[in-house]
Amino acid sequence: MDTCLFDRREALRVALLAAATLAARPAAGSAGAGEHEHQPKLELPVIAENPTAVPVRVWVEHPMDADHFIRSIDIVLDKDPVPHKGTFRFTPASGQAWVAFPMRSGTGGLVRATADCSRHGRFVGTREVRVTSDGCSTSSGPVARDALGNPRLRLARSGRLGEVVEVRTKIDHDSDTGLTQKGVQYVRERPEFFVKQMRVYFGRDLIAEFRFTSALSPNPIVRFPLKVTRAETLRVVFVNNEGRQWEVAERIQPAV
To answer: What is the DSSP letter of 159?
Structure first.
């Protein structure tokens, strides 16, 4: 047998096997996956005058196709006493991957958003924010529990079939981290109290789910996208960390 021919065939077989293995390997976070279209972007004030209600908007400019979409965005501010700010899950029915909400911050610092693509894995974006004072410490008075609920829902505008519109929701609900600052440390003074979850349904379909922490501001306004695909009922369900639940619904009629 021609050993040179055998060596060449074997080298070719190994090369083809290696190429197939590389092609099958997930391209999580790789530059080849289109880092620009996957990287989350954050919009925050440079200096937040009210640290109990720092406005945050996060988005990813990415298709929301059935087989390729942004599944979630997670927001963390590591230096804060309540570092985790929320996890926001989307579906192709959202039409776009973005959310806006107010958060508490105790120290400010580098806000980190991590987006999870259904095909290419996770990508990270960051932005710095400064606060003028501590927004995470609990107040000295009791938590307001006598006027909870009253959820509201409205569209910024009516949309045609296939368009993505902005939805705005609000609920009357206090937010308390239960923490107090003693020296340079935060210690727990009492239990947390906050809106823990927000579920968005279009008809019977769950199209988005947002999970908050006690870093969510009191009486929050939350904005998010909806792709208008038909005449249907949009329903938003709020659940707090004690299991109480409120919901609001509105009939969506596509513009003509």
So the answer is: -
Q: Specify the amino acid at residue 140.
A: S
Per-run averaged pLDDT (10 residues), the chain, 256 residues: 41 40 38 69 95 96 95 96 97 98 94 96 95 80 82 92 96 93 86 97 97 96 97 97 97 90
Residue 80 identity? D
Query: Which residues have CB under 8 Å from 14's CB, separation 6+?
Result: none
- Residues 164 and 227: beta-carbon distance below 8 Å: yes
In terms of C-beta density within 10 A (0-12 exposed, 13-18 middle, 19 or more buried), how is residue 69 classed?
A: buried
- H or E element in which residue 3 lies: helix 3-24
Q: Which domains does the chain have, with CATH numbers?
A: 27-252 (2.60.40.10)
- pTM recorded for the entire structure: 0.84
CA proximity to 212, closest of 224, 192, 196, 236:
196
Q: What is the DSSP letter of 29?
A: T
| DSSP string over 76-113 | EETTSSS-EEEEEEE-GGGSSEEEEEEE--SS-EEEEE
